[in-house]
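All the exercises in this workshop are built on plain-text protein records. A record pairs a protein's sequence with a compact description of its fold. Backbone structure tokens are a discrete shorthand for how the chain folds in space. Once this layout is familiar, the rest of the handout is easier to follow. As an example, a complete record with its sequence and its structure tokens follows.
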Amino acid sequence: MIDVTDVNDNAPEIFLKSLTDSIPENVPPADINDNPPAFEKQAYSVYVTENNQPGSSLCSVSARDPDWRQNGTLIYSILPGEVNGIQLSSYLTVNGDTGTIQALRSFDYEQFRSFKFKVMARDNGSPPLSSNVTVSVFITDVNDNTPQILYPVIDGNSFMTELIPRSAQGGSLVSKVIAVDGDSGQNAWLSYQIIKSTDPGLFKIDLHSGEIRTQRDISETDTMKQNIVVAVKDNGQPTLSATCTMHLIISDNLSEVPELKDMAYEDSSSKLTSYLIIALVSVSTFFLTFIIIILGLRFCRRRKPRLLFDGAVAIPSSYLPPNYADVDGTGTLRSTYNYDGYLTTGSRTSDFKFVSGYNDNTLPADQTLTLRKSSTDFDEAFQNTDEITEFQVRSLTMELK
């Protein structure tokens, strides 16, 4: 039997495994931020109507990033810039999450008609990657400007006049109204029309140029002073307009012109007259109202209630003051005048203290003093009274029969 001895004639074998074979299948590989954001459009164009509301949305920009998780999360921002010398941040803002761009103020077509700015999209990777896109904003016009008249120019109280010779024939150019409009397009198309004239059949105006010409030959009977009111309208919606007055003088002699200084004040004088009439009526109404109130107050103060009596009220003797005596107790005098006199004792004076009227049918005989019609009868009633020095008539009744 032969023994076979093993000889080390085989080199060791090395087995290599890939890195992915050692990672479990449920563990995803780590992402690398190697893709910058890409916008859906190469550039954006936005059309905005002027006088837009602050806070209104202009447009939205959108970008995509194929990276995973935070490497693909995007944040939008507007790059610094200026619009008409003002910082862009005072005009626009962008939502960092959605990319919606909003206006912070109203745009005016007359100030600037377009502008551009850039929006940046940046991911949240490490290091962060970003890309930019250009947004162009075009402002469209709105009919918000009234036509401005350049000629004729009204400067305070001065006015411009046009001198027309009396030899002017029909179709002669007299003057021209010049106006401009700050709007654009059809909003700036102007039309001219005469709305008031001293002689409606003497002048006409071109609808588009504003040239004023004569419709016929000027005659000697035409008024020397001619005023024409012209309306200038634009073609916008709604239509805006302005008016002016042309002062024309038909004369061959310049020396007559200074005598017409009051021509420009005819319309203002009529308005001033209306204001004066209104003021006069208002003042007169106020004055009359004031007088009526004063008279009413005085009437109320002077007015006293009237008491109608069928007869005098009887005064019992218990209501008479002490130390008074009845002069005559008959009380049966049927004359026209009846008097009650109450006299005091211990006085040397003879004057009336109080007089009041009464009806002779209401007082008893023991409480009345009867005096005669004549003064002699009145003296006889008091000639035997020595101790009575002061008397006072308590009531007086005058009864006319």
About this structure: The chain has three domains: 22-140, 148-258, 317-398.
